[in-house]
From TrEMBL:
Pfam families: Band_7 (PF01145). Its main location: membrane. This is Protein HflC. InterPro entries: Band_7, Band_7/SPFH_dom_sf, HflC. Residues 21-206 form the Band domain. GO terms for cellular component: membrane. Belongs to the band 7/mec-2 family. HflC subfamily. The keyword Membrane applies. It is found in: Membrane. It comes from Polaribacter glomeratus. Coiled coil: none annotated.
Amino acid sequence: MKTKSILIIILVIITLIGLNSSVFVVEEKDQVVITQFGKPVGEAIIEPGMFFKLPFIQDANYFEKRYMEWNGDPNQVPTKDKKFIFVDTYARWQITDPLQFFKRLTNERGAQSRIDDILDGDTRNFIANNDIEEAVRTSNRIPESSDTGIIGDSLAKIYVGRDSIQNMILESANKQTKELGIKILDFRFKRINYVQEVQDQVYERMKSERFRIADKFRSEGQGEASRINGEKERELKNIQSLAFRDAEMIKGKADATAAAIYADAYNRSSKSRGLYGFLKSMETFEKTFDRKTSIFISTDSELYKYLKKMD
């Protein structure tokens, strides 16, 4: 009886283990390939739910259904115009046919290695087939004016552009990965940097461009300064001539008014004429003579008449 109970317990345990190993759950993020003795059996399971397999004989191989990332190693790549640049890339990929993926690549580590070979090779090929400007720039820019100068007037014209090169690499890579059960969803240049020699050349070209723009602004500024100074001198002379004219007109009017007043006062009577002559003579004496002055005058002079009277 005791032996029978032990056998029953053993059978129950074996049954539970068998049931546990025969049931597997597929989540929304998973897709599963069933293998029997290492070889795939049936179609891949891509819908979520609970499924059964043969215990101990079959295995459930889980693969990611979501998008996965790939980061390339920065590589030094030559361009068509014999310039070397460091190119750092990244991509997003997805397993679209898990059964084919398992047959060709087995697991995600094998897929990452294969994507390395494909994307790195295509990157080198397409970069090498284009000049450096095509890899760096996306489109041709129309020259614009800014506070610092003219922008884009010395840039070389491009015919392909960075975005087109990325799209061509993506298209070429997907042709190669189609039979692997994966798809490259997106490919981008994460960073493109010049090697030191090229950096020096770029900086020198940027400096010469800035110097050219500075010389242009200095020349324009000097021309504008000359024009402003010329206008200033012309305006100053015009103002001075107008002021001199007005001053002379005012002086002339004042002299005419004074002469009219003097004439009116002088012609009123003989006494007024005598007083006027006396005052003018005294004024002349005051302005002309001092203690050290010696003069010779005629007896016909008006001054002599007053001096004689003083005797």
